[in-house]
Structures are given as C-alpha cells and as structure tokens.
Amino acid sequence: MERWRLLRPHVEDGVPLATLAARCGVPERTLRRWRADYQADGLAGLARARRSDRGRRKIPDELVVFIEGLALAPAQAERRGDPPAGSQRRRRPRLAGPGIHHDLRGRQEPRPRVGDPRAGGYEKVPGGV
Q1: Can you list the residues of the chain whose pLDDT is less than 50?
Q2: Where are the domains of the chain?
Q3: Residues contacting residue 28 through CB under 8 Å, at least 6 positions apart
Q4: Integer Cα distance of 15 and 20 in angstroms
Q5: Per-residue pLDDT at 28
Q6: pTM exceeding the 0.85 threshold for the entire prediction
C-alpha cells in the first residue's frame, strides 16, 4: 500500500508530517487526512474508496452521441473525398491595428480619438454627453 509506505515513518518513528510532505511531495493536509483515516480504521482506512458515481454519466446520452458524431466527422469527410479542415483557405490577419490608418502617401499616423486630450482637446460627442 502506497499510502501506508508514505505514512509509516510518521506512525512508527515519529517523523513530523511537514518533513514527510517535503520529502515525498504529498501535501501535508493529505497526510493528515490519511493519518486520521489510519487512526480510525487501521490499514483498511488507507484503502481507496470506490466512487459512488462510478460508471454514471453526468451528461445526457443525446449529447454523448452528438460529440461522438463530431469526432467521427473528419473520417467520414475523408471517405467522401472532402479536403481536410486544416487545408482550407483562411483570411489573412489585418496588419494595422484599429488605432492606425494609412494616408494617401503610405505613412502610418495615429488616428485621433474622441476625448483624448493629446488629440487637440475634448470634442463634443454627438448625441449629448
């Protein structure tokens, strides 16, 4: 039993749990919980309990069928002769961000923003405010 092997130095030799945690890489809180389980039920308390929800799905069967269909779709498309999804042509990204525009001479200039004091003071925003 792995849990007993890790907890044994504490139980038999009195090695502090903090030292064991640092040495074996298991959180000290986990070692404390294992010690409490050992003190309550002996070695049987250190055995892993089976999950109560083992074997049960938490999502509806219809959703499982849909997801499995998505996983099988590339194989079905390949059998039909469709090109792989990764080979489809994609749009090129914009090279200039939204705050930069090009004038007719090709220079990049920052676009003045409404309300930016560096752009010549505050301007009235249409519609009030």
Answers
A1: none
A2: 2-46
A3: 17, 18, 20, 21
A4: 7
A5: 94
A6: no
